[in-house]
TrEMBL record:
Pfam families: HATPase_c_2
Keyword Transferase carried by entry: yes
Protein name: ATP-binding protein
Gene3D superfamilies in the cross-refs: Histidine kinase-like ATPase, C-terminal domain
Natural source organism: Streptomyces lusitanus
Statement: the UniProt record of this protein carries the keyword Transferase: yes
Length: 149
């Protein structure tokens, strides 16, 4: 008797990049993530905004000179998971619920919290931490990425 085959109904799509911990690296993370979503035929909103915020946080708060950050996107079933790993595991993110109305920063994680279905932080292994967010990959009302011309 043969053992049943283990396979997924749909393949797991994934995309991983290592980028410099600079504003340019954060910008590239957003642009390349948006292009990958386009390639997969998935909506860019809200994922591109979440990638932008998590990457900006990695280069602002998780930066260690000479160390890069990593962006990982993967889709399992109907869920897109976005992960950004930096090398400052000692600095865990915390949403700033009391940011001043005129403050120029401090609201990034509130945006992630509002846009993502779920989000969190996974520590380690030292010195790393990964901030992740999940969104529905084909939610109703989402705008698919327009075809590239």
């Amino acid at each position: 008797m043969r053992a049943p085959e283990n396979h997924l109904a749909r393949p797991v799509r994934n995309f991983s990049l290592q980028l410099s911990s600079t504003p340019r690296g954060a910008r590239l993370a957003r642009l390349l993530a948006t292009e990958q979503l386009r390639t997969w035929g998935l909506p860019s909103h809200p994922a591109e905004l979440i990638v932008a915020e998590l990457a900006a946080n990695a280069v602002t708060h998780g930066r260690v000179l000479g160390r890069d950050f990593r962006l990982l996107l993967y889709v399992v079933g109907d869920t897109l998971r976005i992960e950004v790993t930096d090398t400052r595991g000692d600095r865990l993110p915390c949403p700033q619920h009391s940011a001043d109305d005129d403050a120029e920063s401090g609201r990034g994680l509130l945006l992630v919290e509002a846009l993502a279905d779920r989000w969190g932080v996974v520590p380690g292994p030292p010195p790393l931490k990964t901030v992740w967010a999940e969104v529905g990959a084909g939610s109703a009302g989402q705008c698919p990425v327009p075809p590239r011309r």
